[in-house]
Design goal:
142 residues; mainly alpha; globular
Length: 142
């Protein structure tokens, strides 16, 4: 344990900041993504909305919550980011990538392969967030 602490202390400040930011992203992103997946599943399964409509509603919920939490917690103090309005527009554009990826998972697994509505959820939780983190870090909250 002490060796690990010494390794972290010996890291460059920028690398420590990146690791801390990634940790915050994982915690915040997992919470937002899990809530998004839950809203999707509840609307698509018990409520029986069309899976893509359920995905769209879940997306709107997650993008609003995600912007607030990532601005205040995940990427706080990261770069200048320009004006808030420009940052908000970039965040929405990146979130559309998230929507597109999640819609792709729903289309492939539920609509084309006729699998249960829960099958896209692992992809929503473990694939989409990594692409979105990179875009948020490099473009939205730079």
């Amino acid at each position: 344990m002490m060796k690990k602490l010494n390794q972290i202390a010996a890291m460059e400040p920028e690398m420590r900041a990146l690791l801390a930011q990634m940790g915050r992203y994982v915690a915040t992103g997992l919470a937002v993504t899990a809530l998004q997946a839950l809203v999707y599943w509840l609307l698509a399964t018990p409520v029986r909305l069309h899976p893509q409509i359920a995905n769209g509603i879940a997306y709107l919920f997650a993008v609003a919550l995600g912007y607030v939490l990532h601005s205040a917690f995940t990427f706080r103090g990261h770069g200048t980011g320009g004006k808030k309005a420009a940052r908000g527009v970039r965040f929405v554009l990146v979130s559309l990538v998230s929507l597109g990826l999640n819609a792709l998972w729903v289309q492939i697994f539920v609509l084309w392969l006729n699998l249960p509505t829960w099958v896209p959820v692992p992809f929503m939780l473990f694939v989409t967030p990594f692409a979105v983190f990179a875009l948020n870090r490099q473009w939205v909250f730079r």
